[in-house]
Amino acid sequence: VLLVMIGFANGVTQGFGIPISRCFGAGDYKNMRRYVAGSFIMTVAMTLILTVGALLGIEGLLHILDTPADIMEEALQYIRIIIMGTAFISLYNYSANILRAVGESRIPLLCLVVAVILNIFLDILFVHTFSMGLRGAAHATNIAQCIAGVLCMAYLLFRFRELVPKGQEWQVQRRKYQEMTVFGISLGMMSCFVSIGTVIFQTAVNRLGTKIVTAHIAARRIEELTNVPMLCTGMAMTTYASQNLGAGEYDRIKKGIGLAILYTCIWCSFTIVASYTIGDWLVYMVTGSKNAEVLKNATNYLKFD
What we know:
Elements: H1 2-26, H2 29-64, H3 69-84, H4 86-101, H5 106-129, H6 133-159, H7 174-206, H8 210-247, H9 250-277, H10 279-287, H11 292-304
């Protein structure tokens, strides 16, 4: 469920960045600032809708998914806290995607590295030292995400002041909002489409007991990690193609697409080999479980998926 929300939020803000990249490539800074203003307003609206809708519907959804009774209470506690932090996720994604749109990809990465390290430290502190359980893990995630968002936004405001909209540039322009809506919804649905299928599939998995749920979640976590390089290649190509489209550099777009396909194929081959050779070890590293049923089912899931 969380992957659906996070994937949608990331995809939508990435879609908002497409016209910003195009204007940047064309040197049209006035319209670029108008798109920055519009994307901010639409990101705030999307965040409010996602947060309120998710808080109201999450308990019913977990029941529909046949979440086992012995983990229902903890699942609800965890996901409600994470939902309350949706604004932090949106803040980071909005800032990071604007920075990438103008060719700055290092700072979003560094902010994310800081967040990951902080998240690990806070997980140990809240879960192990303070014995807060899943609530502690959720709070750690929110705090780390908040730090990443604030750092990214601070850098954006300090380093790229020319991107900050002024006066009439904040006015709503219907055509621009329609364009951003099309891009945002398209990439948002693309980013979370697989996760929606996983949520539906989770209903069947949840009926098979806690061990199978554990195996499935472990395999999904590993799969998510293996998907990251491919997703990031796609994100990079979105910005790269938009900038070069604005600049009229069509040959560079073709060359970039060819390299992206090559890199993706190489990574896919590596993950397939890894799943058949060290899949059981990866599952053990994720779960810490020595249960034969968990290891077997998770490894089989990896191989076939």
